[in-house]
Amino acid sequence: MANKSGRATGKRSQRTRSPPPSAQERGGEQPLSLGRIVVTAIELLDAEGVNGLTMRKLADRVGSGAMSLYWHVDNKEAVFDLALDTVLEYRGPQQKAEPQDWRGEVLHMLEDWRASMLRHPWSASLLPRRALGPNILNRLELLSKTLSAAGVGDADLNAAIWSLWNYVMGATITRASFDFLDADRAAAQQRLTSLSERYPTIESSHLLLDDDWDGAFRKGLGFLLDGLPLR
Amino acid sequence: MANKSGRATGKRSQRTRSPPPSAQERGGEQPLSLGRIVVTAIELLDAEGVNGLTMRKLADRVGSGAMSLYWHVDNKEAVFDLALDTVLEYRGPQQKAEPQDWRGEVLHMLEDWRASMLRHPWSASLLPRRALGPNILNRLELLSKTLSAAGVGDADLNAAIWSLWNYVMGATITRASFDFLDADRAAAQQRLTSLSERYPTIESSHLLLDDDWDGAFRKGLGFLLDGLPLR
DNA sequence: GATCGCATCGTACGACGTACGAGTCAATTG
DNA sequence: CAATTGACTCGTACGTCGTACGATGCGATC
C-alpha cells in the first residue's frame, strides 16, 4: 500500500498497434484486447451481478488464462472502473432539437443517464465507490453549460448542478436496489404485511407498491426544475 | 443456493434471556452478544472501510473465535445489514418545535440522515445493495406523514417523498465518494489539471473544488422544497 | 449422575486476487 | 541465416476469505 506509486512498468495503456490483418486465427478466437475484456466484463456483470465477476470467470469467457488479463489491466478494480465508465457514455440527443429548449435537453440527458444505469443495475451499486470517470465528467460539463445558458446565475449554478445530479443518482440507486429486493419475493411479502401495522402512511399511499417509477422520476424532476431560480 | 429456505434451525434472533448477573467474568470479557457484534462491526467499518471488515478480524475484536459469530448471525451479509440499519436510527427532533413547522421538521430529519451517513461513509456505499431496514422505513413514514399534513396532495405525495429521498441519497453518496477520492491526492491533482482543457465550464465554476457541501446541500434542498406543489 | 439445550471454537474446503517466472512467437538486428 | 529482443500468454503457488461441519464445554433439568 505504501509503494503504490512504485509501479514503473508501462504495461498496456494505449492500443495503437498495426492491425495484423492476415493473422491466421488461432483456433478461431480473436486476440485478447482491452476492449474485449471490458465488453465481456459488462456481459458478465449483467449476467451474474457484482459478486459474479471474478477474474477467473472473466478469463474463461474471453478464452484466455486468468493471468493474461493482468497484462491489459492493472487489477480487478480497474475492470470495474472501465466497465462503469463504458456503460455511462453519452452520445447527445440524436436529432438537433431547437437550441432554446434547455429543459428538453436536460431531461433527455438525465433520463438517458438513468436508463443507462438501469440497463446495467450493477452500475448503480458500483458508482458510489468509484472515481468520476471521463464520461461522467462529460455529462456534468454538458449539464453545466446548458443550465448556464438557460439563465441559472453563477451563484446558484453549482447548487443547481448538484441538485440534479443528486436527484438522478438517488432515484437510480433506489430503483436499482428495489429490483434486487424483488428478487426474493418471500421476504418482500412478509415485509409488506408487517408494514400495514407499523408504517400506516407508507401503506396507505402505496409508496412501495406503486411501480410507475418512470412517471415518478419525471414528476419529481419537474418539481426540481420548477424550483430552480432563473434570472 | 437452491435450498436456501431449508434453514430450519432457529439460532438466535431475539435476546430475551434472563441476565446472568453473578456470572464470574471469564478472563474479564463480556459475553458474546448480537449487540456487541454489531457495535464492533461498526467500529471496524469506521476504521478500515468496507473491505476491512472480515469475519476473522471482527471475531478478534470481539475476543471470540471466528465461527462463534455464526451462532448470532446468519452470514456476513447480515452483519452489513445490521450495521447499516443501526447507523440509520432516527430519534426525532430533540425539542418539540411548533407543530406547524413542517419545513423545519423535514429539514431536520433529512440533514440528520445525511449527517448519520457521513459519520460512517461506508454506509453510503453499502446502502444501494441492501434492503430497506426498519429505521429507513421509519424515516420514510415520518416524511410521508409530515408532507401529507403540510398540504401535499395525495396525487403528488409519492413523487414528493421519493424526490426528497432521492435527493438526500444522491447528495450523500456523492459527498462520501468524494471523500474517498481525496484520499489519493496525486491522481486528484492530475485530474484537475486535465480538467481545464477538456471540461472548461466545470473548471470555471469550481464545481469540483467548492467544498461548501453543507451549504450546497441545503440550497438544493431549498430548490426542491420550493418546487413541491402545496394545496 | 444422566441428559439436554445453548453457546463456543478448531479444522478444513473451495474460491478468490494476484505475485512470480517460465513459456511462445513475430519483428528486428547482426 | 542465426541471435536477440520485446510484446504477450499462462501455469503454479501463496495468502486470505466466507463458512460447513463436528467436537467440546457448560448450566439447568430430570
Descriptive notes:
Chain A has 231 residues and is an all-alpha fold. Chain A has two domains: 59 residues, Arc Repressor Mutant, subunit A (Orthogonal Bundle); 126 residues, Tetracycline Repressor, domain 2, CATH 1.10.357. The first copy, chain A, contains eleven helices and no strands. The N and C termini of chain A lie far apart (50 Å). The N terminus of chain A is likely disordered. At the A-B interface, helix 7, helix 8, helix 9, helix 10 and helix 11 of A face helix 7, helix 8, helix 9, helix 10 and helix 11 of B. The structure holds a DNA duplex (30 and 30 nucleotides).
What is the compact description of this entry?
Chain A is an all-alpha fold.
Helix and strand layout, with pairings?
The structure is a homodimer of 231-residue chains.
Chain A: H1 34-48, H2 55-62, H3 69-72, H4 76-87, H5 102-119, H6 122-126, H7 134-150, H8 154-181, H9 185-198, H10 200-204, H11 213-227
Helix pairs in contact in A: 1-2, 1-4, 5-7, 5-8, 7-8, 8-11
The structure holds a DNA duplex (30 and 30 nucleotides).
